[in-house]
Amino acid sequence: MTRDTYVGSSDPMTLNGVRYQKGLGAAGNSKVSFDLGKKCSRLTATIGIDDAADSSTDGGTSHFFVFVDGKKVYESGLITRETVKDVDVDVSGADTLSLVTDNAGDGFDHDAVDWADALVHCA
């Protein structure tokens, strides 16, 4: 997992031509957890496969999940190179937030997943 770049690079995250200066980059099948201490209210982010994913090969797909205290509260559906979605999840009263991705069952080729502009809103 990388901060403010797409995974394996020092370049900013880019989704469908839009550059993002902040966020988390990862490969398929990733998980990162945060201790919120019941002090936060929302998670917002823009998710997708980074434009750096080589479109000449298979792969470049993922599912994104958000878990709050071990319970799944968000599932993106299939995300492809062309798909970008906004995420807005209530995390009020949560102790733990986990951001999870998978490889959508087609291997790990070009699964450069971005949680662009990921922000947890806390008091």
Architecture overview:
By secondary structure, the chain is mostly beta strands. The chain has strands at residues 2-3, 13-15, 18-20, 23-27, 30-35, 40-49, 64-68, 71-75, 84-90, 96-101, 112-122. It has a five-stranded antiparallel β-sheet with strand order 1-4-11-6-9, with no helix packed on it. The mean pLDDT is 91. A hairpin with a 2-residue loop joins strand 7 and strand 8.
Strand and helix order: EEEEEEEEEEE
Overall shape: it is: globular
| Structural classification | mainly beta
Uncertain segments are none
Compute the number of helices.
0
Q: What is the terminal-to-terminal distance? A: 26 Å
Q: Output the strand order for the largest sheet.
A: 1-4-11-6-9
The largest pleated sheet is described as: 5 strands, antiparallel
Rg (C-alpha, Å): 14 Å
Mean pLDDT: 91
The counted number of beta strands is 11
Beta-strand content estimate:
over 45%
Helix content: under 10%
